[in-house]
Amino acid sequence: MNEKDKAFDDHHCSVIERENVKVEMDACDSNSDSREEREKCQDEVKEASRKRERACKFS
User: What's the maximum distance between 2 C-alpha atoms anywhere in the chain?
Assistant: First the structure.
């Protein structure tokens, strides 16, 4: 795979993941009763997002 294709694929993964994170963060905001609960949910979303994006880029 050349660098141009790799950059396109990486960007594609980032765009997809950005949308996923937005939806999941909104769910954290609406489903959490306390600030601590919301922050814990957001941390979990961010970690899962990093893993999904890395998996997408290296697949």
Answer: 48
